Amino acid sequence: MKKIAAVFVVVLMVVSLVSLVFAAGMDMQKGTIKSVDAKAGTVVFCAEGTNADMTLKADKAVDLSKVKAGDKVQVSVEKDTLKHVMAAPAAAPAAKPKAPVGC
């Protein structure tokens, strides 16, 4: 029984380490699509808070027909490869200022 528990713990540790390695390689970023070249399979992306454009090669799983210039998106990037694109979550509406109370 102790051998089975030890093997289970080792397997669990290996799986955890592998998932950490994959998570570390992926980079999630919000930003704007500047241009899309479906023929070449590339996207020019500008990350939020920067002025630097990145040219990314789209992974085979990414459908570039659903992306157009000007889209606000959240992307997964691994090295210079675009792995996933989705619409950026909408920002919460700004709270309305309260009317002044007094005499």
Structure overview:
The chain is of the alpha+beta class. It has a domain at 27-87: OB fold (Dihydrolipoamide Acetyltransferase, E2P) (Beta Barrel). The protein is built from one helix and five strands. It has a five-stranded mixed β-barrel with strand order 1-2-3-5-4. The model has no long low-confidence stretch (mean pLDDT 81).
Distance between the termini: 78 Å
Question: Mean pLDDT score, rounded?
Answer: 81
Q: Indicate the overall shape.
A: flat
Would you tell me which CATH topology of the domain at 27-87 applies? Answer: OB fold (Dihydrolipoamide Acetyltransferase, E2P)
Output the strand order for the largest sheet.
1-2-3-5-4
Just give the CATH class of the domain at 27-87.
Mainly Beta
Strand-pairing-aware structural class: alpha+beta
Q: Low-confidence segments, ≥5 residues, pLDDT <50?
A: none
Biggest sheet overview = 5 strands, mixed, barrel
CATH architecture of the domain at 27-87: Beta Barrel
| Count, helices | 1
Order of helices and strands: HEEEEE
- Give the oligomeric state: single chain
Can you identify the CATH superfamily of the domain at 27-87?
Copper binding periplasmic protein CusF
What is the β-strand count?
5
The value of Rg in angstroms is 22 Å
